[in-house]
Fold:
Amino acid sequence: MLEKTVRINYLYDFYQVLLTPKQREYMSLYYLKDYSLGEIAENAGVSRQAVYDNIKRTETMLESYEETLHLYQKFEQRTSLIQNLEECINERDLEKAMTTIKQLKELD
Structure:
């Protein structure tokens, strides 16, 4: 569950501008501020089921955006390559560092 939460948080960070204000509010309260569905429902004046449905639809939308745009995937790749580059620098492996830099450039 934690892994899914982390993924959704990243997807939200990348794609929140594509969401409606209500979707942003519910996702922010649920994932970032750790509100329960009941608390969000009470604050919004809607049913708990309405909040749940909205959050699930929004999660599906975020996954759909990722399938098309791959921003999170590229972020993960860059993060991994940067870690590799740091290791190369620490090991003073210039050849491997140059290969990693090429891979980073190819991601853009």
User: Anything to note?
Assistant: The two ends are 31 Å apart (CA to CA).
